[in-house]
């Protein structure tokens, strides 16, 4: 419903739909702009060749996947190489600091936090890793021939 609108128009339509949702009114949306769905919808249905490929609560679908479960940790005040010498984890350097991803092991998450503090850095955020709606859509529809 928002493709082709300018940023102000998109915002107004997004707020209208969010207000309806917050009042308990169901809004049925069909769009290819999946980021709009992620922001506005509680439940989704994905169609493949006219049949339901996936349906359910958005958060459950994005977390209950076959993908590796893990956490993304945002850090400040510690260098990539220093951290990598201490622990073998996936690290990305961003303008705002470091982003570390750990998968499947909570003890590894605790180690990253402990090492960061010991090195004088600080933990800014810890978020569970979930797939995006676009990733889920591709996963559910890429095998359309099967």
Distance between the termini: 31 Å
What's the SSE pattern? HHEEHEHEEHEH
pLDDT averaged residue by residue: 88
Q: Please state the CA-atom Rg, rounded to the nearest Å.
A: 20 Å
Biggest sheet strand line-up: 4-5-3-6
The CATH architecture assignment of the largest domain turns out to be 2-Layer Sandwich
Strand content: 25-35%
Which percent range fits the helix content? Answer: 25-40%
The CATH C-level name of the largest domain is Alpha Beta
The total number of structural domains is 2
Number of helices: 6
Q: Any idea what the shape is?
A: elongated
What order do the helices and strands come in, and which of them pair?
Elements: H1 7-22, H2 34-40, E1 43-48, E2 51-57, H3 58-63, E3 70-76, H4 80-86, E4 90-94, E5 97-103, H5 106-118, E6 122-128, H6 133-141
Antiparallel strand pairs: 1-2, 3-5, 3-6, 4-5
Give a structural overview.
With 146 residues, this protein is of the alpha+beta class. The protein folds into two domains: 7-64, no CATH class; 70-128, Alpha-Beta Plaits (2-Layer Sandwich). The protein has six helices and six strands; from the N terminus they run ααββαβαββαβα. It has helices at residues 7-22, 34-40, 58-63, 80-86, 106-118, 133-141; strands at residues 43-48, 51-57, 70-76, 90-94, 97-103, 122-128. A four-stranded antiparallel sheet has the order 4-5-3-6, with helices on one face. The chain is elongated. The mean pLDDT is 88.
């Amino acid at each position: 419903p928002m493709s082709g609108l300018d940023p102000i128009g998109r915002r107004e339509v997004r707020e209208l739909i969010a207000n309806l949702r917050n009042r308990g009114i169901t809004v049925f949306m069909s769009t290819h702009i999946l980021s709009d769905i992620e922001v506005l919808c509680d439940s989704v249905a994905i169609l493949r060749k006219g049949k339901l490929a996936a349906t359910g609560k958005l958060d459950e679908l994005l977390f209950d996947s076959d993908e590796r479960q893990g956490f993304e940790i945002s850090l400040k005040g510690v260098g990539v190489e220093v951290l990598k010498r201490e622990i073998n984890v996936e690290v990305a350097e961003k303008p705002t600091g470091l982003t570390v991803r750990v998968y499947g092991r909570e003890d590894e998450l605790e180690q990253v936090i402990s090492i960061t503090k010991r090195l004088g850095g600080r933990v800014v955020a810890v978020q569970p890793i979930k797939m995006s709606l676009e990733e889920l859509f591709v996963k559910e529809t890429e095998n359309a021939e099967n």
